[in-house]
Hints:
By secondary structure, chain A is an all-alpha fold. In chain A, 72% of the residues lie in helices and 0% in strands.
Amino acid sequence: MAQSDTVDRILDAAEELFAERGFSETSLRMITSKAKVNLAAVNYHFGSKNALIHAVFARFLTPFSATLEQAFDELEESCGDQPPTLNQTLWALTESAVRMPQRNEKGISIFMRLLGLAYTQSQGHLRKFLEQEYGDPFSRFMRLLKAATPQLSAVDRYWRIQFMLGATAFTMSSSDALRDILQNKTGVETSVQEIALRLVPFLAAGMQAEDAMLVPPKGSRVSVA
Amino acid sequence: MAQSDTVDRILDAAEELFAERGFSETSLRMITSKAKVNLAAVNYHFGSKNALIHAVFARFLTPFSATLEQAFDELEESCGDQPPTLNQTLWALTESAVRMPQRNEKGISIFMRLLGLAYTQSQGHLRKFLEQEYGDPFSRFMRLLKAATPQLSAVDRYWRIQFMLGATAFTMSSSDALRDILQNKTGVETSVQEIALRLVPFLAAGMQAEDAMLVPPKGSRVSVA
DNA sequence: ATTGGCTTCAAACGTATGTTTAAAACAGAC
DNA sequence: GTCTGTTTTAAACATACGTTTGAAGCCAAT
């Protein structure tokens, strides 16, 4: 909580406000007044509002991507030459997120919401920044997913990965769910864990759904291409 | 395409720009210049920017919710006293969306993206408007889902429905996917159908995933609460 | 031809935004 | 204590926004 440093106070306030209201809807004046610093401080320390947004993401994402790469290293090593399973891959990602050291109680859920917003609000500069800075672990995750689902055609896998990302990003960015999570007085860490405990099986089952179900029910007006 | 009426030209332009850039990021000046109408026309015909947003949604959602209610009526009638299955319920929704008469080639995918944005960008007024105006068919869909998944606990069902909504809304609101869809020269209608053909089985499988998978793999640091 | 009700138009209004400025305050080194 | 570079501050800047205004244009009914 109590950092007296201006930069950190700005980052804390910005992180929270961005998560609550989105990027465009959060003004520098809201941020600086919440952080109790002068308006010009943002431009002095970060250069611009966009650079501040990048800094908010970098503060969490840089240590996280390091943790994730290490988790993938351990997983691949423990598997020998055969590729990790879908379940193992998903859990490696989940555990890396949960194990991240939290700045405060709301830590993870706030950042999950930010990640969801980053995906959804098509802010060109953010997308470019994230791809450039953290594209590597993401590509690696994709490669692991591919190796873990050899039974899927490329196009099936592409769409199902989209669905997975969607369920995850959306759940994390749902403000109602976030409110529920924050309301939960048993501590957020276990709440995020509980969501993950429910989400991962859902995703794994969806990824491994049988093609047979692709056919709509009898009498359907949706024709199979 | 070619409507000469000012109101429709504004709605068409707004619909497209909102889908491309989001609500806050689209200014009235962008809309009116794309629609080739005077800036003041929006406030004259709709009253405010928020009211324009509502009108964009109402133009699609009002006929859609009628179609959907009818589809649910038919489904429940054809099922007698036993409740419709999960697959039937999901397909009834999907087909209602696909069968909607399109204003132009991009029709459905644009509106799917708007629905995704509505859920994601936490615009208070929009959420309130949608709940108030179209809450009934949504509640009915929820009731059908509950009856179709009696094996799930209430909290499990709650979260899995969140995941379903997420996968759907996100996929539909993903601008990259949208671009792919629009690139597909075989016509958007079949593309949306193809996505639905892949999405519905994914969702159904996820909804019916077994609880046994709830336990993380051996050696996991995520403890079961 | 003139009226009266919509609709369009160019212009302006007030406000909020991100950013810049230049002076003041501060801190540590000498 | 004085100097030097960094940080903070209040004020202003330029721009973009949603909205309002009042005159002009239009078109059918009188």
